[in-house]
Amino acid sequence: MTTPPQSGREPDTHVPAEALMTRFEAPEPGAADATDTTGKGKKASGQLRDIWRRYKRNKLAVVGLVVVAFLMILAILQPWITPYDPMEQNLLNTRKPPSDGHWFGTDVLGRDMFSAIIYGVRLAMIVGWSVMFLSLIVGLALGAVAGFRGGALDSLIMRVTDIVLAFPALIGAILVVQIFGNGIWQVVIALAILSWPTAARLMRGSTLSLRESEYVEAARSIGASDTRIVTRHILPNAIAPTLIYSFSHIGVAVVAMASLAFLGIGVPPDIPEWGTMIANAVPSLNVEGESHMWVFPSLAIVVTTLAFAFVADGLRDSIDPKLR
Amino acid sequence: MAKFITRRLAHAVLVIIAATFLIYLGLFVLGDPFASSGEKTVPPEIQEALREKFGMNQPFFMQYLTYLQNMFTFDFGIDFEQRRDVGDMLAAAVPATARLAVIAILIEIVIGLTAGVIAAVSQYTFRDVFITIITTLGIGIPVFVIGIGLRAGLSGEWIFPAVPRSFTVETPWWQEIILPAFTLAILDAAFIARLMRGSMLEVLRADYVRTARAKGLSERKVIGKHAFRNSVIPVVTYTGVSLGVLLGGALITETIFEYQGLGFLLVRAIQQHNNPVIVPIVVFAVLTFVVLSTLVDILYAYLDPRIRLH
């Protein structure tokens, strides 16, 4: 969908399309090991190098990757780098503009905005990645089963995805949160429930197209079990579109959580979350000298979503040029 | 074609039935609105009387069937907070949301198509790169950040009414609608521009466009008549689905601008656990979404006969 300015414009003559077709290795080293029989690990590393070479061409994607890495480091180190306790209130020092002591100022309850935003990074990373892994695992499993088995099970799974996808995203998430109650993990579950159907459909599609291919038939003819065929032969080749979708969904999940929090749904109000911070700033939106209360959390969200979007674009162009 | 339409409609009905059931089940499981919570203590005998009054002492399936029956006769019951007729509340909110949705769609079509065509026609030039950057930002920046920014910067200035509304000043509807409509339109306009650019570039490479040029048509005619008409189909599809989403209520945007539509109503109802208001709005949102996606599918199959085979 995206067309980054320069990257991938020239046709990929270096890598024959079949090389990608026949043996795609997931970027995780673990996945490469799993399929490592007779010296194929070497080939996998060659392919990773190809992916990286194509990835590097997209400058925005590289910038995005740097920012994402930076955010991950912030998220991990948060307890040690926040100058104040992000939850600590100081009612004598509320709504103060940025100063030496409080770089991003203080909020309605006198909490340090800088610490709160760094805490928000941690929260966003935890939620974003958790949603990604949950929906990826469920989507891969159900999509592969639906595509490989076909029949009644396939119809059942596809009808379930139809029903879930009939809900406009935010409304669906709100309903699930209403059922499970407020809390970060409830939000994660709600967002995962809404995002696995797309992953499952993508996986089903690529599984279907591979099911009748010759190498799968070859595997079957030498007596490989269904489980083995799906996990060793189909999964590595079919995973790319689903993986890319799930990755691009991290940013979507972060925005969805912030949107829910902004509406006061799902995220407990005392947790420093970007959407909550912006909601708290709404009464002073037009007040002179208090704009720091919504500007900094907004910037944090924008930087995060743009960085993940750039990385996702870069991944799509480099892992699977056919998708463009 | 008739067979395709029948199958698609049956599918839509099935999805709607399942979704309404899930909504009702979900909100029923959600809990008892008459239970004591927080500061509110409700004596057991009053709880019993309230349940009796609202028919919540009956088995779940009976409640669901009664609800469906009432909904088909446009009887949505009475809300829990202020004892208003939910039908009246919806009748006030639906036109406001529909107006907002239609205006937002018009804005995004005009901006999106123009930007997409310009980008495609001047591929790789400064204009193209500039539009690409803007669309990337438009898609990447969350709607509620855009909305908050617009409200902070513009509301209360010039022709834009202040939020929250002043009770004494009467604002004409078109002034109230401009900012929320733009907030909603930005994301979709960026998407449409991208879709249009992509499909137009594809069409411009087609043989019949070369033929049109070869026989000496002006560039204006080649683009406007041959290329544009054939590349606009994906945009039609996207806009249809987008309208389906917007008609169900724009929760974030309406809340930011305190626009009295379905989305704002739903958000307040959720904060008050006001089930009689939540259920019909969510059902309505699902309904419009499914109906419009179905219509778009049928339209697409009509425009592109290859689809019908699947």
Give a concise summary:
The complex is a heterodimer of chains A (324) and B (310). Chain A has 324 residues and is mainly alpha-helical.
How would you describe the overall organization of this protein?
The complex is a heterodimer of chains A (324) and B (310). Chain A has helices at residues 17-22, 29-34, 40-57, 59-81, 113-149, 151-165, 169-180, 184-211, 214-221, 226-262, 274-281, 292-319. Chain A is an all-alpha fold and 324 residues long. Chain A has a domain at 71-82 and 128-323: MetI-like (MetI-like fold, Orthogonal Bundle). The longest helix of chain A has 37 residues, at 113-149. Chain A is elongated and about 75 Å long. Residues 1-42 of chain A have low confidence and may be disordered. The model of chain B has no long low-confidence stretch (mean pLDDT 83). By secondary structure, chain B is an all-alpha fold. In chain B, α6 (143-154) crosses α7. Chain B has 13 helices and no strands. Helix content of chain B is 73%, strand content 0%. The radius of gyration of chain B is 24 Å and the shape is flat. Chains A and B meet through α6, α7, α10 and α12 of A and α1, α5, α6, α7 and α11 of B.
The helix/strand order of chain A is: HHHHHHHHHHHH
The whole-number mean of residue pLDDT values of chain B reads 83
Strand content of chain A: under 5%
Could you describe the largest sheet of chain A, including whether it forms a barrel?
Answer: none
Find the structural class of chain B using helix and strand composition. mainly alpha
Distance between the termini of chain A: 7 Å
Spell out the CATH superfamily of the domain at 71-82 and 128-323 in chain A.
MetI-like
Number of helices of chain A: 12
CATH architecture of the domain at 71-82 and 128-323 in chain A: Orthogonal Bundle
Percent in helix of chain B: over 70%
On the 0 to 100 scale, the average pLDDT of chain A is: 79
Instruction: Assign the CATH class of the domain at 71-82 and 128-323 in chain A.
Output: Mainly Alpha
For this entry, what is the oligomeric state of its chains?
A: heterodimer
Biggest interface goes to:
A-B, 39 and 50 residues
Show unreliable segments of chain A.
1-42
Number of helices of chain B: 13
CATH topology of the domain at 71-82 and 128-323 in chain A: MetI-like fold
Measure the end-to-end span of chain B.
12 Å
Broad shape of chain B: flat
The global form of chain A is: elongated
Fraction of residues of chain A in helices?
55-70%
Family (chain B): Belongs to the binding-protein-dependent transport system permease family.
Keywords (chain B): Cell membrane, Membrane, Transmembrane, Transmembrane helix, Transport
Pfam family, one (chain B): BPD_transp_1
Transmembrane segments (chain B): 12-31, 100-122, 129-153, 173-195, 235-257, 277-303
